[in-house]
Amino acid sequence: MEVDKNLIEEMERVLNQLGGVISSKIIKNDRGDIVEIHILADKSRNPKQISRDVQSALMAKFNVDVDYKVISVAEIESDEMVNESERVRIKSLQYSIEGIKGNARVVIEKNDATYEGEYSGIHSSGFLPTAFMNATVSALNKYISNENILIVEDYKFIDIADLKVLVVALGVMNVRHKELYIGNAVVHEEIGEACVKAVLNAINRALDVLKK
Question: Are 197 and 85 in contact (CB under 8 A)?
Fold first, then answer.
């Protein structure tokens, strides 16, 4: 796929929001095809996972399919790395049905404090991802500063490397600007758990900044 300079810059901005990524550089050839993607990352995540994140983000956001062979990941120590013990974790999740309505309830924990979020709507199999992601966002909004509002912008399931992956785009808005964060999670048997993990994957590194 031929891509222009403005699109390349937009892609790099999206990649820079991925978990573990410090900066990115996309190289194209004379025909405008992407031939190299260079990622500078901290050591908070596995390089193979970051490479899959890059593929997932470009496919979900720009419908651009890149071969993993063009992606190189260089790791460095970073002062911005989040201590694992300080990350938001899943405490519990539950989905209940009453009549035609479904309700997702997600409880997360950070630094020994818990935050609960819920989301309800008309029950269907297609409603489950929306319910769990929005319930997670509801819980996160109770943690972050009142100046910032976190919302689910979009999500997509993609098949890559024989895996089903959920990619979610989160928007963080305040009176001054809006930022986009992208996260993903491999879908195993529990769709709800994958939804919560994808949301946390997108936003975990930025939470303490948003809380200030």
Answer: no
